[in-house]
Amino acid sequence: MSRIPIRPIALFLTIAVGGGWLVASPLWISGQGLAMPGATVLLVVMMFVPTLAAWITGRVLPSGQSFLTTTTVRPAVPFRRWLPYAILAWLAPIALMAASLGLAALLGVYRFDLEHFSGATALLEEASGGVPLPMPVALIVLIQLVSLPFAPAVNVIPALGEDLGWRGFLQTQLLPLGQWPAVLITGVVWGLWHAPVILLGYNYPGYQPFAALGMMVVFCVLVSVLLGWLTIASGTVWTAAIGHGFINGVAGVGALLSTAGPVDTGTAGLLGYTGWICMGVLVLVLVALRRFPVRGAAPAPPTAGFRSDAPAA
Fold first, then answer.
1. 112: containing domain
2. Which of 84, 111, 136, 177 lies at a CB distance of 3.0 to 4.6 Å from 259, suitable for a disulfide?
């Protein structure tokens, strides 16, 4: 088994994990948790910590490699080569979300309300503070659904903040172990990295904190296989950022189409076990079609770090 660069990986993880806790610390110190004013801003800032960790690691432990090239922010292949993967990363999250909600409905853990949109009505009334809505709820939901292939694009840059660190740096450094170990280990680490906010109820409200963290790890491992495959097959981390951004962007669809009341994220949607099943099936399809592990993928870099004079992303 090939060796991996332990020192750069250890430094990266120290900065990424420590930085994540540091950014989230006001949520804990305030005693208000996710209800603290400005919590959303902190969550977005936290997403850029892995990129910062990768950049600092490259400065401290330089090896003569470019930051942009090693992390595949600068693709090694022409745009036409990775464009099909970008399109897949764009559309697949929407299809996976639809499949997971359909499966949840079949299993009786989710109920659609496509006539009165009672779930959307409750959400909109709460958000408006009782102010009359400017148009029928059905029309608002329709607008939301029509914009679904486009609106989540705003999430791609924050998603890149995570993916440049996890898939651009960590996964790349783990590739000497093989593609499967690289994507699985990255997924476990990525899931645990979310602990500062998951333990406060983020993504899995109502669940025991450490059970929620375990569920987040399962979710992240499955997503990591898919995003890792996109990165390796396309030759650029941009495809992972697109996929990740749209996964985040479709997260609220379940609440728009459900009956009134909270949607159990542990069962319905991509975060829940119905989403895990759908993503697991997609992984099995990739394996069955011999698309993963990726044949002929670019070899992992022999050393870690970047040129000390390389430009930062």
1. 79-288
2. 111
Residue 302 has a pLDDT of 45
Q: What angle do CA 188, 194, 195 make, to 5 degrees?
A: 100
Q: Does 283 reside within a domain?
A: yes
**Does residue 3 contact residue 177 with C-beta atoms inside 8 Å?**
no
Number of domains making up the chain: 1
One-letter amino acid for residue 111 of the chain: R
Give domain status of residue 197, yes or no: yes
Q: Say if 302 falls within a structural domain.
A: no
Asked if residue 12 is part of any domain, the answer here is no
- What pLDDT is stored for residue 300 in this prediction? 53
Instruction: Note the pLDDT of residue 112.
Output: 97
Written in H, E and C, the secondary structure of the chain is CCCCCHHHHHHHHHHHHHHHHHHHHHHHHCCCHHHCCCHHHHHHHHHCHHHHHHHHHHHHCCCCCCHHHHCCCCCCCCHHHHHHHHHHHHHHHHHHHHHHHHHHHHCCCCCECCCCCHHHHHHHHHHHCCCCCCCCHHHHHHHHHHCCCCHHHHHHHHHHHHHHHHHHHHHHHHHHHCHHHHHHHHHHHHHHHCHHHHCCCCCCCCCCHHHHHHHHHHHHHHHHHHHHHHHHHHCCCHHHHHHHHHHHHCCCHHHHHECCCCCCCCCCCCCCHHHHHHHHHHHHHHHHCCCCCCCCCCCCCCCCCCCCCCCCC
Q: Which among 228, 301, 297 has a CA at the least distance from the CA of 62?
A: 301
For 162-180, how does the pLDDT look when each residue is reduced to its tens digit (9 = 90+)?
999 999 999 999 999 999 9
78 by Cβ neighbours in 10 Å (0-12 / 13-18 / 19+) ranks as exposed
Ranges under pLDDT 50 in the chain:
302-313
pLDDT of residue 2: 66
The pTM (predicted TM-score) of the whole model is: 0.93
